[in-house]
Protein backbone atom coordinates (compact mmCIF):
# COMPACT_ATOMS: atom_id res chain seq x y z
CA UNK A 1 0.00 0.00 0.00
CA UNK A 2 2.66 2.51 1.03
CA UNK A 3 5.87 2.74 -0.94
CA UNK A 4 9.33 3.58 0.20
CA UNK A 5 11.54 4.82 -2.59
CA UNK A 6 15.08 4.53 -1.29
CA UNK A 7 18.10 2.46 -2.08
CA UNK A 8 16.88 -0.13 0.41
CA UNK A 9 14.58 -2.84 -0.84
CA UNK A 10 13.20 -3.30 2.64
CA UNK A 11 10.05 -1.26 3.01
CA UNK A 12 7.83 -0.92 6.03
CA UNK A 13 6.70 -4.35 7.09
CA UNK A 14 3.02 -4.81 7.80
CA UNK A 15 2.20 -5.75 11.35
CA UNK A 16 -0.99 -7.74 11.67
CA UNK A 17 -3.50 -6.40 14.15
CA UNK A 18 -5.64 -9.11 15.75
CA UNK A 19 -8.88 -7.13 15.94
CA UNK A 20 -9.22 -6.61 12.20
CA UNK A 21 -12.40 -8.26 10.99
CA UNK A 22 -12.00 -10.10 7.72
CA UNK A 23 -14.23 -8.65 5.04
CA UNK A 24 -16.52 -11.56 4.21
CA UNK A 25 -13.70 -13.77 5.46
CA UNK A 26 -12.09 -13.42 2.04
CA UNK A 27 -8.44 -12.41 1.62
CA UNK A 28 -9.21 -11.32 -1.95
CA UNK A 29 -11.77 -8.82 -0.61
CA UNK A 30 -9.15 -7.35 1.70
CA UNK A 31 -6.73 -7.00 -1.20
CA UNK A 32 -9.40 -5.24 -3.28
CA UNK A 33 -10.25 -2.86 -0.46
CA UNK A 34 -6.58 -1.98 0.04
CA UNK A 35 -6.27 -1.36 -3.70
CA UNK A 36 -9.30 0.95 -3.60
CA UNK A 37 -7.90 2.94 -0.69
CA UNK A 38 -4.46 3.06 -2.29
CA UNK A 39 -5.96 4.53 -5.47
CA UNK A 40 -7.16 7.47 -3.40
CA UNK A 41 -3.63 8.44 -2.38
CA UNK A 42 -1.19 10.33 -4.57
CA UNK A 43 2.11 8.59 -5.32
CA UNK A 44 3.98 11.27 -3.37
CA UNK A 45 1.72 10.63 -0.36
CA UNK A 46 2.39 6.88 -0.54
CA UNK A 47 6.12 7.54 -0.66
CA UNK A 48 5.95 10.00 2.23
CA UNK A 49 3.78 7.62 4.26
CA UNK A 50 6.17 4.76 3.55
CA UNK A 51 9.01 6.85 4.96
CA UNK A 52 6.97 7.73 8.06
CA UNK A 53 6.13 4.11 8.81
CA UNK A 54 9.76 3.12 8.23
CA UNK A 55 10.97 5.82 10.67
CA UNK A 56 8.42 4.66 13.25
CA UNK A 57 9.59 1.04 12.93
CA UNK A 58 13.23 2.13 13.15
CA UNK A 59 12.42 4.06 16.32
CA UNK A 60 10.62 1.04 17.78
CA UNK A 61 13.58 -1.21 16.89
CA UNK A 62 15.96 1.26 18.55
CA UNK A 63 13.82 1.34 21.69
CA UNK A 64 13.34 -2.44 21.72
CA UNK A 65 9.57 -2.25 21.26
CA UNK A 66 8.09 -5.59 20.25
CA UNK A 67 6.24 -5.64 16.93
CA UNK A 68 3.05 -6.68 18.70
CA UNK A 69 3.13 -3.42 20.70
CA UNK A 70 3.45 -1.22 17.62
CA UNK A 71 -0.10 -1.82 16.41
CA UNK A 72 -2.12 -0.37 17.97
CA UNK A 73 0.53 2.04 19.16
CA UNK A 74 0.13 3.39 22.65
CA UNK A 75 -0.03 7.19 22.85
CA UNK A 76 3.12 7.16 25.02
CA UNK A 77 5.00 5.33 22.26
CA UNK A 78 3.79 7.82 19.65
CA UNK A 79 4.72 10.79 21.85
CA UNK A 80 8.13 9.18 22.42
CA UNK A 81 8.53 8.92 18.64
CA UNK A 82 7.75 12.64 18.33
CA UNK A 83 10.18 13.47 21.14
CA UNK A 84 12.93 11.37 19.57
CA UNK A 85 12.82 13.39 16.34
CA UNK A 86 11.91 16.76 17.86
CA UNK A 87 14.47 19.42 17.02
CA UNK A 88 16.21 17.30 14.38
CA UNK A 89 13.28 17.25 11.94
CA UNK A 90 10.84 19.99 11.02
CA UNK A 91 7.40 20.03 12.58
CA UNK A 92 5.81 19.47 9.17
CA UNK A 93 7.98 16.38 8.61
CA UNK A 94 6.94 14.91 11.95
CA UNK A 95 3.31 15.80 11.24
CA UNK A 96 3.56 13.94 7.92
CA UNK A 97 5.08 10.91 9.64
CA UNK A 98 2.28 10.91 12.23
CA UNK A 99 -0.30 11.08 9.43
CA UNK A 100 1.36 8.01 7.94
CA UNK A 101 1.21 6.08 11.20
CA UNK A 102 -2.41 7.14 11.66
CA UNK A 103 -3.32 5.96 8.15
CA UNK A 104 -1.46 2.72 8.79
CA UNK A 105 -3.58 2.20 11.91
CA UNK A 106 -6.78 3.06 10.02
CA UNK A 107 -6.00 0.52 7.30
CA UNK A 108 -5.43 -2.13 9.94
CA UNK A 109 -8.60 -1.17 11.82
CA UNK A 110 -6.55 -0.28 14.89
CA UNK A 111 -7.51 2.56 17.25
CA UNK A 112 -5.61 5.84 17.13
CA UNK A 113 -5.34 8.22 20.13
CA UNK A 114 -6.93 11.20 18.36
CA UNK A 115 -8.23 12.78 21.55
CA UNK A 116 -4.88 12.77 23.34
CA UNK A 117 -4.06 16.28 24.55
CA UNK A 118 -0.51 15.12 25.23
CA UNK A 119 -0.07 14.08 21.61
CA UNK A 120 -1.37 17.47 20.47
CA UNK A 121 1.10 19.21 22.80
CA UNK A 122 3.94 17.02 21.54
CA UNK A 123 3.09 17.92 17.93
CA UNK A 124 3.03 21.60 18.85
CA UNK A 125 6.37 21.22 20.62
CA UNK A 126 7.85 19.51 17.55
CA UNK A 127 6.61 22.34 15.35
CA UNK A 128 8.19 24.96 17.63
CA UNK A 129 11.45 23.01 18.09
CA UNK A 130 11.77 22.50 14.34
CA UNK A 131 11.38 26.15 13.34
CA UNK A 132 15.16 26.58 13.06
CA UNK A 133 15.14 23.90 10.35
CA UNK A 134 12.94 25.95 8.04
CA UNK A 135 14.73 27.49 5.13
CA UNK A 136 14.49 31.26 4.94
CA UNK A 137 12.19 32.61 2.26
CA UNK A 138 14.05 33.23 -0.98
CA UNK A 139 13.84 36.37 -3.04
CA UNK A 140 11.82 35.99 -6.22
CA UNK A 141 13.40 35.84 -9.65
CA UNK A 142 12.67 39.06 -11.50
CA UNK A 143 12.64 40.16 -15.11
CA UNK A 144 15.97 41.89 -14.42
CA UNK A 145 17.46 38.50 -13.54
CA UNK A 146 16.17 37.03 -16.80
CA UNK A 147 17.65 39.89 -18.80
CA UNK A 148 21.01 39.48 -17.05
CA UNK A 149 21.04 35.77 -17.87
CA UNK A 150 19.94 36.38 -21.46
CA UNK A 151 22.78 38.82 -22.05
CA UNK A 152 25.34 36.35 -20.62
CA UNK A 153 24.44 33.25 -22.66
CA UNK A 154 25.08 32.20 -26.23
CA UNK A 155 21.88 30.83 -27.78
CA UNK A 156 23.86 29.13 -30.56
CA UNK A 157 25.23 26.82 -27.84
CA UNK A 158 22.71 23.97 -27.40
CA UNK A 159 23.32 23.73 -23.64
CA UNK A 160 22.74 27.47 -23.19
CA UNK A 161 19.58 27.20 -25.29
CA UNK A 162 18.31 24.38 -23.11
CA UNK A 163 19.04 26.35 -19.93
CA UNK A 164 17.27 29.40 -21.37
CA UNK A 165 14.24 27.28 -22.30
CA UNK A 166 13.98 25.80 -18.80
CA UNK A 167 14.40 29.21 -17.18
CA UNK A 168 11.67 30.73 -19.37
CA UNK A 169 9.25 27.88 -18.68
CA UNK A 170 9.96 28.14 -14.95
CA UNK A 171 9.55 31.92 -14.87
CA UNK A 172 6.54 32.36 -17.13
CA UNK A 173 4.88 29.14 -15.98
CA UNK A 174 5.35 30.09 -12.29
CA UNK A 175 7.20 26.84 -11.61
CA UNK A 176 10.03 25.89 -9.31
CA UNK A 177 13.18 24.69 -11.04
CA UNK A 178 12.89 21.41 -9.12
CA UNK A 179 9.66 20.70 -11.00
CA UNK A 180 11.41 21.02 -14.35
CA UNK A 181 14.89 19.62 -13.85
CA UNK A 182 16.24 16.25 -12.87
Automatic annotation (TrEMBL):
Keyword annotations: DNA-binding
**What Gene3D superfamilies does the record point to?**
1.10.150.130
In terms of superkingdom, the source organism counts as Eukaryota
What InterPro entries does UniProt report for this protein, alphabetically? Integrase_recombinase_N (IPR010998), Phage_Integrase-like_Recomb (IPR052925)
The GO molecular function terms of this record are: DNA binding
This chain belongs to the protein called: Uncharacterized protein
Organism in which the protein naturally occurs:
Lentinula raphanica
Amino acid sequence: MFELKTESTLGPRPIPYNNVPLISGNIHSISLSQRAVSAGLADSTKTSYGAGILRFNQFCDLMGVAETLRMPADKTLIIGFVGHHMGSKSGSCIKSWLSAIQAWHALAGAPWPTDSKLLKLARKGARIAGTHLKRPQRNPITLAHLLALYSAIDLSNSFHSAVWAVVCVAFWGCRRLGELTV
